[in-house]
Structure formats: structure tokens, C-alpha cells
Write a structure and sequence with these properties.
The complex is a heterodimer of chains A (244) and B (477). Chain A has 244 residues and is α+β, with helices and mostly antiparallel strands. Chain A has 7 helices and 11 strands. In chain A, helix 3 (105-112) packs across helix 7. Chain B has 15 helices and 21 strands. Chain B has helices at 47-58, 102-110, 141-147, 151-157, 165-174, 196-202, 207-213, 220-233, 251-260, 304-307, 318-326, 343-346, 387-397, 432-435, 459-476, and strands at residues 39-43, 62-66, 78-79, 89-90, 96-97, 115-118, 125-128, 131-133, 242-245, 264-265, 270-275, 280-286, 289-295, 297-300, 312-313, 333-339, 353-357, 360-366, 375-381, 405-412, 446-448. In chain B, the strands form 5 sheets. A 7-stranded mixed β-sheet of chain B has the order 8-7-17-18-19-16-20, covered by helices on one side. A 5-stranded parallel β-sheet of chain B has the order 10-2-1-14-21, with helices on one face. The chains are: A alpha+beta (244), B alpha/beta (477). The interface between A and B is medium-sized, with 27 and 34 residues.
């Protein structure tokens, strides 16, 4: 009696497991994309020059959870802030359209690794800013290769006594992609990057014509379906704030 | 609400700063009873913030300590979770010295805390170029010669500890420092643009010595000043005698917090600061609810890398902002191994190991007074490391036959949201005048304390010293 129940139980389990795998194969079970919302500041709100803008971001994801309940790590939520001089509607619309849809490979790798635990793009954290790194080295293939090796092997004593830990899991190609992203983006005076679901950034001093716009794009890449490679999805939200 | 206007009249209930825990003695200073009571917000509930809050409270002032995270103590953190038999480990600040740490020792007496000798610097085994050296080997002239030291260094190291090598070159310069808070004007100002490596080279250091004590990014002036401070305090460069608190170093922050009672608020990060001639008003979160609070003074015990993301209006003058933007810290992972036995004794080895491995720097035993056959070993490792990778690194180079490790846990400080910083790093070469004394100078009604805000960068020492300095200054303001 007991063995027949066990047999029935096993058969049922195999049936459902086979069904789940079949649905995955047929693409019927899908990972839902995350919903990213910039709660503050409001879209199309105005800002003062030379003052702090406080931002808050909420991420909800059917599989990963809700950032407000700390089910999503703030360290996986990013904000890109782009400054546009003047008040041209065309420029603004183009910038919103161009707002990141997918991250370049190097930046995506950096976001999913431990880079941002110790580095920010424009400001010092435990390690030097990516801006400082970009300014320190010549932008050529030799330094890209040299720095890519440093990322993998680690360094010490380059920036005072700071130790850069080794990252042996990166390939040299991946490491190069990250350095290339830093060289291409870190020195852009009109763009900054922030990590976390809340924080502040400071607006510029008032330009001569008194007009300017900031494009804010928050993003989060979810963790995908367990056991299903490359099933993760990215969500983003872009807003515009304009000078008063 | 304008800065300083109507202090506490709007946002703070009258009883906010009252001692809400009558069972906790406040020890008000009777001499201060006729002085005006000052209202002080201390931001940062690490050992510096708690110590400062406690000292201000003792002087009769009304104080609130706001801690951004869900626990106080900051980088002083004793963990028991996951360990068996009552074992524990200090994942952050883990030792004090004697001499040195006078304030800290004072508190151990005041709170009757038991201090244990901590032999983690005894019988060190150092791995150099893949070979382990005992202390005896590193004082043996023939071994030292093979490592490339010159005759003068060989003679010195044969009579002095390996860790004191720098003293051979520093010592003749240190007598000129007579005030430990004044690095300038003693005749060495020009050495701020000379690297430590160049400075030692000039005095005849061998390439071998430069390898172990040189630096091309630290200045000779900074090095001499730090050596001068230690000399004035009667402390060796790398004190061999270390101590710790029985039951874990978090015992001291706990004692401060116990006496401060409900004045310490957790999960209360500061969001913004407005300050003026008569006071400071802040916005902060109290477990997700945004609130405002005003006071006469604000003490920043938040490490600058976290503080620089908090808006301050009006902005600090450029020289102060430069310090806040550019003070750097080290950060790392701590890995704890629990083992079934003192396996190294079978190999007749010391467990105080300098491993020179990229995934695990060094290893030593903690909590050795706990009565159990099990042992807990602590390792310093780079940020981002997993416990298993650190264990693999240890097993790759461990000089004995086998270990009995049965558990590996990691605390990665670099992943912390608020207390990711450990100790302040040396100021960059050629920039001492930009940082000192600006790093400790108050601005208006904002004061600065913590591990970064003293002359010597030893975490718990700098925290307790700067906390006392600021409490005194606000009391006398």
C-alpha cells in the first residue's frame, strides 16, 4: 500500500516537473521585467541652480521583490543623470529617446560585479573615482591591456595605500570592456552615475542663459529565472527636470 | 525652517533629550550645573559617535545620537552568529595597544570591562617569496643577507624586531616633534613632496628594505610625523603587545549605548543639514519616516566617504570641502574559520601567519579564552572575496600538513551601506597642508570626530580621542 502511494507521488512529481520544463522550453513561463519608477523628483518638475536634488527610486519585480521592502539590493539600482544645456525641446526629446535601453557590455559587467562597492564614477569611495583613473592614464590599447590585467590580478600602492583586490573571474576581454567603458564615459562632464534607491545630486551653477535640463534614467537588471541562463530582464524609467 | 531659528521649538518635543532611562546613571558634572545646557545632534553611532554622545551627556548636555544602520557600533562589530560553543569574533576593530589607547583604557576601567592579552603578534611566521620565515630566521644575519639587506640593516634587524625596521631610518628625525598635533615648522616641511622611498633611499636603504617599508605615494613628512606622534606617546611603530575585550570589542560601544539609553536612535540616517550662526537643523529618517530636528551643535561622526553624499547648506568653505571629498579609507573582508582543533600545534607552527597571498593576507586566533576544543581563526582578505576562496588560498600556502577547519564565514565590509570604511589612509604626498589641520577643524556649529578626525589614524584610538576633544570643545563653546 505504502509503496503504491510512493509510486503515485513520484509519478505526479515527475509529471509536474516535466510540464514545467516543457513550458520553459516552449517559452510559456517567462521572467517578468522589473518595473522601475523615479518617485522623486517628479517628471517635468523644475529645479534651482546650485542646489541639491533629492531622488528616490522604487523597483518592483514579480520574481525579485520590492525595493521598498528591501527585497531588492539598493546596490543594484542605478541612476544616470545627464545635463543638457539650454532649453531646446528637440535636444530634450532626442536625449530622452537616446536614454539607455541596454547597458554597454563593460558597464553591464561593472554593475553586476563588486566594482561599485569601492568606486564611484565621479567621487572617491574606498578606491579612486573612475574619473581619476581615466585622467591618470593615456587612452590607448596598451594602457587598456595593462589596466585590464591589473583589474584581474589586483594592485596595491598605486593610489596611496589602497589595495585593489584581484578579480580572477573576469576574462581579459571582459576586463578590457570595463576599462573601455571607463575611458569613454567617466570624463563626460555632462553625465554622472549614482548607485542606490535614494540620494542627492547637486545642480550646476547658473549658466549665462539661465536655462538647462537634466535627464534622469533609473535602471535595474533583475536576476532572471533560477537556473535559466540569460533570462534576466532590465527595467528603466526616464524623467526630465527643467530649470526654473 | 531656517537654520538655528527657534532651536527645538518646532520639531523637538520638550522631553526629547530627557534621560528616558532612569536606571542608567548620567554622572552630570556638578561644575557645569550653572552652565547653559546645549542641545547636540551626533550623527553616526560608531564608537566615535557613541563616545562623544556619552561625554556630552556626562557634561550635562542634551544629546541625540543618530545611527543610519540598524545597529550601533559601526566598524566595531563582534559576531557570534554561525559560530558554535559560544565562540565569537571581532570582524572589525580588533585590538588595542599598551602603551597607547589611553582614552580606551580609561573607559575599560570606568566600565569595569575585562581586557585580555591578545598574542596575535607573537611568533609571527612570514611568507616571503613563497618561503615561510620565523622571527628567529628574520634576525639571522645569513638569512637577512640572502634577502638582500645591507650591513647596517642586518645589524639592526639582528637586534630589533622585523616590524621596527623603519625605526632604523626614522628615529634620528623624530625628536624634533614636540607637539603631536603640529607636523609643520619643525624643519621637515619640504619632505611632504619627497616620497618615503626616495627619503629612505637618500639615507642608504637597500632595495630589500624599500620593498618592505618603502612607498612611492606616501610622503616622508607624513611618515615622520606619525612616527613622532608614537614616540611622544611612548608607543613602538608596530606594538608587539596587543589586547582586546573579553567577549568582544563591541563591549565598549555597548557600554556607551547602554548609558545613553534611548538617546541613541537606530535606522535614522541624516538626509540633509542646514546650519547657521545659532544652530543646526537636519532632516533625517527615523525607520523610513522623514523628520526634522534642530539643535545648537552638530557633531559629524560619519566617515567622510559617506558624509560627502549628504547635502550641507550653506556649503562648507572650499578647504573644508576638499577634505570631505578626498579623505580616503581602507576597506576589506574579514573571514572567520572555525576549526575542530588547534591543528597547527601538530605541525609545531605558530598560527600568527603573514600569508602574502592575494586572497588572504594574514591569519590569527581569536576568542581563545572560550572553553571548547574548537577554535576560531580570523583572516584579513580583500573586499569581494568569498569565504571559500579565502579558504582555498589558505590551503594553497599553509605550511603544515592539514587543517581541521569545518566552517568559513565572511564579513565583507566593502558591501556595507554605511560603515564600509575602516581606517583613514595616509594623506596623499604633497597635500598634508590641505588636510591638516582642516580635517579636525570645526566649521561654525558643525564639529568633526571619528576614526578619521585625529592626528594618528588608529581607528578606536582616534575615535575616542577625537570624541573627547569635540565634547570638550562644545562644552566650552
Amino acid at each position: 500500500m505504502k509503496s503504491s502511494r510512493l509510486f503515485l507521488f513520484c509519478c505526479t512529481g515527475i509529471f509536474f516537473l516535466a510540464g514545467y520544463v516543457g513550458m520553459l522550453g516552449a517559452g510559456k513561463i517567462k521572467n517578468n521585467p522589473p518595473k522601475v519608477e523615479i518617485l522623486m523628483p517628479g517628471n517635468e518638475s523644475t529645479f534651482n541652480w546650485d542646489s541639491y536634488i533629492r531622488y528616490t527610486i522604487r523597483v518592483t519585480d514579480a520574481e525579485d521583490g520590492n525595493s521598498e521592502f528591501e527585497e531588492i539590493s539598493p546596490k543594484e539600482v542605478f541612476l544616470e543623470v545627464t545635463y543638457l544645456p539650454g532649453s531646446s525641446k528637440t535636444n530634450e526629446n532626442n536625449a530622452v529617446k537616446a536614454a539607455v535601453i541596454s547597458d554597454p557590455p563593460g558597464f553591464a559587467l561593472m554593475k553586476s560585479s563588486t566594482c561599485f562597492n569601492c568606486h564611484l564614477v565621479k567621487a572617491k569611495l574606498t578606491g579612486p573615482s573612475f574619473l581619476e583613473i581615466s585622467r591618470k592614464y593615456a587612452h590607448n590599447s596598451a594602457t587598456i591591456s595593462m589596466l585590464a590585467k591589473k583589474v584581474i590580478k589586483g594592485t596595491s600602492g598605486v593610489w596611496t595605500n589602497t589595495i585593489m583586490p584581484p578579480n580572477p573571474d573576469f576574462t581579459e576581454e571582459q576586463s578590457k570592456q570595463m576599462i573601455q567603458w571607463i575611458f569613454k564615459n567617466a570624463e563626460n562632464p555632462n553625465r554622472n552615475y549614482f548607485v542606490g534607491t535614494e540620494g542627492n545630486f547637486k545642480t550646476r551653477t547658473k549658466p549665462d542663459n539661465g536655462k538647462g535640463t537634466y535627464i534622469l534614467t533609473a535602471s535595474y537588471s533583475d536576476h532572471g529565472l533560477k537556473g535559466i541562463a540569460k533570462s534576466n530582464q532590465r527595467g528603466q524609467h526616464t524623467i526630465v527636470i527643467r530649470s526654473k | 525652517m531656517s537654520a538655528g531659528a527657534g532651536i527645538a521649538s518646532i520639531a523637538i518635543p520638550d522631553n526629547l533629550y530627557k534621560d528616558e532611562d532612569a536606571s542608567v546613571a548620567t554622572h552630570p558634572d556638578p561644575e557645569k550645573k550653572f552652565k547653559a545646557t546645549k542641545k547636540v545632534i551626533v550623527a553616526g553611532g560608531g564608537i566615535g559617535g557613541l563616545c562623544c554622545g556619552y561625554e556630552l551627556m556626562k557634561k550635562g548636555h542634551e544629546v541625540i545620537v543618530l545611527e543610519a544602520s540598524g545597529r550601533h557600533g559601526g566598524h566595531v562589530f563582534t559576531a557570534r552568529d554561525g559560530l558554535s560553543d559560544g565562540l565569537y569574533a571581532d570582524f572589525g576593530a580588533e585590538h588595542i595597544t599598551k602603551p597607547g589607547y589611553e582614552r580606551y583604557w580609561g573607559y575599560t576601567r570606568e566600565f569595569n570591562l575585562e581586557v585580555l592579552y591578545y598574542p596575535r603578534r607573537e611568533n609571527q611566521l612570514r611568507r616571503i617569496d613563497g618561503k615561510f620565515y620565523t622571527e628567529a630566521m628574520l634576525s639571522d644575519p645569513s638569512e637577512l643577507k640572502k634577502l638582500g639587506f645591507n650591513e647596517r640593516e642586518i645589524q639592526y634587524l639582528s637586534q630589533n624586531p622585523w616590524t621596527e625596521l623603519r625605526s632604523l631610518y626614522n628615529k634620528p628625525y623624530l625628536d624634533k616633534f614636540t607637539d603631536e598635533y603640529q607636523p609643520f615648522g619643525v624643519g621637515y616641511d619640504n619632505l611632504d613632496t619627497i616620497s618615503l622611498t626616495d627619503f629612505f633611499t637618500k639615507d642608504g636603504a637597500s632595495p630589500a628594505a624599500l620593498r618592505f617599508m618603502g612607498s612611492t605615494t606616501s610622503s616622508a613628512l607624513y611618515e615622520l610625523w606619525q612616527g613622532g606622534i608614537l614616540k611622544l606617546r611612548g608607543v613602538p611603530l608596530a606594538p608587539p603587545k596587543l589586547y582586546r575585550l573579553k567577549g568582544g570589542n563591541q563591549g565598549l560601544p555597548n557600554e556607551f549605548a547602554k548609558r545613553l539609553g534611548s538617546r541613541v536612535r537606530l535606522n535614522s540616517p541624516v538626509l540633509s543639514i542646514k546650519h547657521g550662526q545659532s544652530g543646526v537643523t537636519i532632516r533625517y529618517k527615523e525607520f523610513n519616516e522623514e523628520k526634522e530636528m534642530s539643535a545648537d551643535f552638530f557633531v559629524c561622526c560619519i566617515p567622510p566617504p559617506a558624509f560627502r553624499s549628504i547635502p550641507v547648506e550653506p556649503a562648507f568653505p572650499p578647504e573644508k570641502q576638499y577634505v570631505i571629498d578626498n579623505v580616503t579609507y581602507d576597506s576589506y573582508s574579514r573571514v572567520v574559520f572555525q576549526a575542530r582543533s588547534k591543528f597547527w600545534l601538530e605541525d609545531k607552527l605558530s598560527i600568527n601567519l603573514d600569508l602574502d597571498h592575494p586572497d588572504i593576507y594574514n591569519l590569527w586566533q581569536v576568542a581563545d579564552e572560550v572553553e571548547t576544543h574548537r577554535v576560531v581563526l580570523m583572516a584579513s582578505c580583500p573586499g569581494g572575496i568569498s569565504a571559500q576562496r579565502a579558504l582555498a588560498g589558505l590551503r594553497e600556502v599553509y605550511p603544515g600538513k592539514r587543517d581541521t577547519i569545518e566552517l568559513a564565514l565572511v564579513k565583507d565590509w566593502t558591501k556595507e551601506s554605511f560603515a564600509y570604511t575602516c581606517e583613514r589612509l595616509p594623506f596623499p604626498m604633497g597635500e598634508l597642508k590641505k588636510f591638516w589641520p582642516n580635517v579636525i577643524k570645526p566649521h561654525g556649529r558643525i564639529y568633526f570626530a571619528g576614526a578619521y578626525a585625529d592626528n594618528l589614524n588608529w581607528g578606536m584610538e582616534a575615535s575616542t580621542r577625537s570624541a573627547n576633544r569635540v565634547a570638550r570643545d562644545i562644552d566650552q563653546a
